[in-house]
Design a protein that fits this description.
The chain is of the alpha/beta class. 31% of the residues lie in helices and 24% in strands. A 7-stranded mixed beta sheet has the order 15-16-17-14-13-18-19, sandwiched between helices. Strands 23, 24, 25, 26, 27, 28 and 29 form a 7-stranded mixed beta sheet that branches. Strands 10-9-8-11-12 form a 5-stranded parallel beta sheet, sandwiched between helices. Strand 8, helix 5 and strand 9 form a beta-alpha-beta unit. Helix 2 packs antiparallel against helix 4 and helix 4 packs parallel to helix 5. The structure holds NADPH dihydro-nicotinamide-adenine-dinucleotide phosphate (NDP). NADPH dihydro-nicotinamide-adenine-dinucleotide phosphate binds next to helix 7. NADPH dihydro-nicotinamide-adenine-dinucleotide phosphate (NDP) binds next to helix 7.
Length: 681
């Protein structure tokens, strides 16, 4: 077998390892399969390449450009994933595990591509939250904006998910417009290296957008400054060492850490044997113990059950674990492969022995188990090991030692408060699951365990068919946890992008805010065009372009007709005396929806034209009631434009309804899809 020289990609060059390189062995056969590491990497050139090439190129693209790039990258990786599957078996992972790592990573890119297009503007500045009114007359306002950091993002990844772990960090980073330097864990860096080669070969990424360090990081951290960020996944011990680096102490380099976690799963008091929830609990716990041979940061380490259910849970889990086929991960029948290395195997056995000081092993014997199609001693195989601890209150190791393998401990709880207390003894975890069909149980656990967990996963008979699994972090949802879990946060949709951007409070006049954010702010200049804005194409419309309509009087007949036509005969529109008794109305008033309909009648230009559809309205407020005899007129202003595709884009209009005295009667934001200009064929 050839021994791979796993290379690094630095400043546009692939560089092999040197004599300092570390050996990489197959998790399955124990054979030497690769070497990685080079102490002579030019860190300065690497950072310069990221900061002066990758960063400016990415920042020159809008969020939509970057999102399109991520989508194309995901599609490209999808076409080449077989190559990644093929080499990943040597990490000990089965084909099912590859789906989580490789397909899961590609899926994460896809979600960010979609969110980038839908939830971010086609711009390079992201507006965070609403405009804040800072002055009485509205001439001085506030708005938070986010702009891309101008440094590099250093991603230090764990061994267990060489593809997903890389892509879940890369997607938000690239969407933020920041170049990445990726440092995979050495044990599985050959998979990350192949994935980086595929991404670079796609030609989709600007030069300098990604670089790779296979092997040690050298003194890279000493060169980082306040515009750089480090995102780390791995052990608490390494995180502790890294936190001492001078860049964090002296330069306030951002640090996101995701580290060990003693995740809990709680069987609800209602979910006794015989209920669908009980079976679901057993299924989830077995899956979490055996997927990736338990090498998942989110795996269930502590299984909490009502005291009365301990025996039933141990029996059911043991039966299921007993049917798990352990063996050559490349073989179709294998349900659980090997740990990543002999070192990891040794570590897991040592940690399991520590847990054994406080708990009895009730399933799985590391000295007596069957491995199919591979050599049990040469490969890093261990069996699933289930422990039982009858007194979790007096235990300490159970709540502090993470055996990063297929190891979990069943423990009883007296009541729900006790279950929450026990879960929280993990000192801060990535996730806890609660399997219950009792809504009060869910609320109690959310309140009690929320502060100690980054994610709470509830599952029951309603959601079990579609639920995504205790252990699956999703790009839409936050991944990370407090305390022992590292205190970091990743993903969570656009929240994850913000880790690589600077939030700045902007204060100024409405015109200044409009110019910076490219979103019209009330009080800013209006642009009057000769043509009705509905006759103007998406590309021609300007931010601030405004139409002032004629006035329309509202009559009692209008209110009567609307009431009977729609069936909305609510007393405030029909009965003057009853309306007067209501603190909000001076007497009979027009329906809010009547006002909206009349407003449309005032501002719409009816001819076939560039406005394709009204897709909704946001932030509707009725501010002052309108009575018969009063009138309304409308101000319609182009607030924001968001391209959707080559044919059309979304226009957000500010619509303001004024009464005869010029007071605000209602306001909202109208959304339409507007076509681009097309030359006649
Ligand atoms: P480590 O903490 O040993 O390594 C994580 C990453 O940090 C690797 O890329 C590693 O590189 C790098 N690293 C290690 N030391 C340094 C250093 N001094 N300076 C810079 N980088 C460094 O974790 P592992 O990946 O080996 O996993 C071991 C443990 O981490 C597991 O047993 C588990 O407890 C925890 N873990 C937690 C996860 C989570 O998401 N919470 C996920 C995976 C693991 P190299 O490999 O080259 O040493």
């Amino acid at each position: 077998m050839t021994v791979q020289n796993v290379e690094s990609y630095i400043a546009g060059q692939w560089i092999g390892c040197d004599s300092s390189a570390r050996e990489i062995h197959s998790a399955v056969t124990g054979e030497l399969i690769g070497r990685a590491g080079n102490t002579a990497l030019d860190i300065g050139a690497m950072l310069d390449f990221a900061r002066s090439k990758g960063g400016p190129a990415l920042r020159g693209m809008t969020f939509h450009d970057r999102a399109r790039m991520l989508k194309a990258l995901a599609a490209h990786l999808g076409q080449h994933k077989q190559a990644l599957y093929d080499i990943s078996f040597a990490t000990g992972a089965t084909q099912k595990d590859h789906l989580i790592d490789i397909d899961g990573g590609i899926g994460t890119l896809m979600v960010y591509a979609s969110k980038g297009r839908r939830e971010m503007p086609d711009d390079t500045i992201y507006l965070d939250g609403e405009v804040e009114r800072l002055s009485r007359h509205g001439t001085f306002l506030g708005q938070h904006i986010c702009t891309s950091l101008t440094g590099a993002a250093v991603h230090i990844n764990a061994f267990n998910f060489p593809v997903w772990g890389m892509l879940e960090k890369l997607a938000p980073t690239l969407l933020a417009g920041v170049p990445a330097i990726i440092k995979p864990a050495t044990a599985t860096c050959y998979v990350a290296e192949r994935c980086v080669r595929i991404m670079l070969a796609s030609g989709l990424l600007p030069e300098g957008a990604i670089q790779l360090i296979s092997g040690g990081l050298g003194d890279l951290l000493d060169h980082l400054g306040g515009q750089d960020a480090v995102s780390f996944t791995g052990s608490a011990a390494t995180a502790k060492t890294l936190r001492g680096a001078s860049c964090f102490q002296g330069n306030a380099t951002r640090f996101i850490a995701e580290q060990d976690s003693l995740n809990a799963s709680i069987l609800g008091p209602d979910a006794v044997a015989g209920t669908p929830e009980f079976d679901l609990f057993i299924k989830e716990a077995t899956r979490e113990m055996t997927t990736k041979a338990g090498q998942k940061c989110t795996a269930i380490r502590r299984i909490m059950t009502p005291a009365s259910q301990v025996v039933a849970v141990i029996d059911a889990l043991s039966r299921r674990l007993g049917s798990v086929v352990i063996g050559d991960p490349a073989a179709e029948e294998s349900q659980m492969g090997a740990l990543v290395s002999q070192a990891q195997r040794q570590d897991v056995l040592e940690k399991a022995a520590l847990i054994g000081q406080e708990a009895d092993r009730v399933f799985g014997n590391p000295d007596g188990f069957v491995v199919h199609g591979a050599d049990r001693d040469k490969g890093a195989f261990v069996p699933p090991m289930l422990f039982h601890c009858a007194s979790p209150d007096t235990a300490n190791l159970l709540h502090s030692v993470e055996a990063f393998g297929p190891v979990s401990t069943v423990m009883p709880y007296r009541d729900l408060e006790h279950a929450v207390q026990t879960a929280n003894r993990g000192g801060g975890s990535l996730v806890a699951s609660v399997i219950t069909n009792d809504l009060d149980v869910a609320r109690t656990v959310a309140l009690g365990a929320g502060p100690f967990h980054g994610r709470l996963y509830f599952n029951n008979r309603t959601s079990m068919k579609e639920s995504t699994g205790h252990g699956s972090p999703l790009p839409h949802m936050v991944h990370g946890g407090p305390g022992r879990a590292g205190g970091g946060e990743e993903m969570g949709g656009i929240r994850g992008v913000m880790h690589y951007m600077q939030r700045t409070a902007i204060q100024g006049s409405p015109d200044i805010l409009t110019a910076i954010g490219r979103k019209w702010v009330p009080g800013a200049n209006e642009i009057t065009s000769h043509d009705h804005p509905f006759t103007r194409t998406f590309d021609a419309l300007e931010i601030g372009e405004t139409l002032h309509t004629a006035e329309r009087e509202i009559t009692l007949d209008d209110i009567e007709n609307f009431a009977h036509f729609t069936g909305d005969t609510f007393y405030a529109h029909m009965d003057d005396a009853a309306a007067k008794r209501n603190p909000f109305f001076p007497g009979r008033v027009a329906h809010g929806y009547l006002l909206l309909s009349f407003a449309a009648g005032l501002f719409v230009q009816p001819d076939e034209g560039p406005v394709l559809a009204n897709t909704g309205l946001d932030n509707l407020r009725f501010l002052k009631p309108i009575q018969a005899g009063d009138s309304i007129r409308v101000r319609l202003t182009v607030m924001q434009k968001s391209p959707r595709n080559q044919d059309y884009g979304e226009v957000r209009w500010k619509v303001t309804l004024l009464n005869r005295d010029g007071d605000l009667a209602a306001e909202y934001e109208l959304l339409t899809m507007n076509a681009y200009h097309r030359d006649e064929p």
